[in-house]
Design brief:
16% strand, single chain, alpha+beta, six-stranded mixed β-sheet
Length: 177
C-alpha cells in the first residue's frame, strides 16, 4: 500500500497532507504517461471526490485543445469520463477545469464511491496502461467550464458512456459513431 492509500485510510490524516500526497501521485502519473508502458511499477492514479469532481494527471489544456494530450493520456481521461457517467453523473453537465496543473472534471449527480469500480472496468482494456481510481474527501478544482465546442471529445466520451459504451475502447466508440 502506498502513502496516499495509507493516508486515505487514516482518520487523523489532514487535508493538507492528503493534498500533498495526491499532488505527488499526479506528478508520478504525468511522468508515467510519457513512458512506453504506464503504471506497471505503480499504477497511474486518478482521484474522485463528492460531487463527482475528479482529477487526472493530464494537462488542463485538454478542455480547450483536444490535441494537447497524447493517445494514452486521452484513454485515461476517456475512461475517467466513462466512470463518472457510469456512477450516475450527468453527461450533459460535464465540465472541465484545473487542479494543481492537472485536468479536473465534474459530472454532477452521481455517487463518487461508485467511480473506482466503474473506472476499473472502463480502463481494463487500455493497452500499456495500468491505472486506479481513489476516492478522496475533496478536490478543490478551479475554472470548471464546459469543454470548448459541441464536438469536443470530452462531450463525445460522456455521450458514448451515457449510451452504455466504453469511451476508452476504440471498438466501443466505433459502434456509437
Amino acid at each position: 500500500m502506498d502513502d496516499l492509500a495509507r493516508a486515505l485510510g487514516d482518520p487523523a490524516a489532514s487535508p493538507a497532507q492528503l493534498r500533498t500526497l495526491l499532488r505527488a501521485e499526479l506528478e508520478h502519473g504525468a511522468h508515467e504517461l510519457g513512458l512506453k508502458r504506464s503504471g506497471y511499477q505503480r499504477p497511474v492514479t486518478v482521484a474522485v471526490a463528492p460531487g463527482l469532481v475528479a482529477v487526472a494527471p493530464v494537462s488542463p489544456q485538454l478542455r480547450a485543445d483536444p490535441a494537447a494530450v497524447d493517445d494514452r493520456a486521452w484513454a485515461l481521461v476517456a475512461a475517467l469520463v466513462g466512470s463518472l457517467v457510469a456512477a450516475g453523473g450527468d453527461p450533459e453537465r460535464l465540465v472541465a477545469g484545473e487542479l494543481d496543473g492537472h485536468v479536473a472534471l465534474q459530472a454532477p449527480g452521481g455517487d463518487h464511491e461508485l467511480v473506482p469500480l466503474a473506472f476499473e472496468e472502463q480502463v481494463a482494456g487500455v493497452d500499456r496502461l495500468r491505472a486506479r481510481a481513489l476516492t478522496v474527501p475533496e478536490l478543490p478544482a478551479s475554472d470548471l467550464r464546459e469543454p470548448i465546442g459541441d464536438g469536443h471529445p470530452l462531450r463525445a466520451a460522456a455521450r458514448i458512456a451515457a449510451l452504455g459504451g466504453m469511451p476508452a475502447d476504440p471498438d466501443s466508440v466505433a459502434q456509437f459513431e
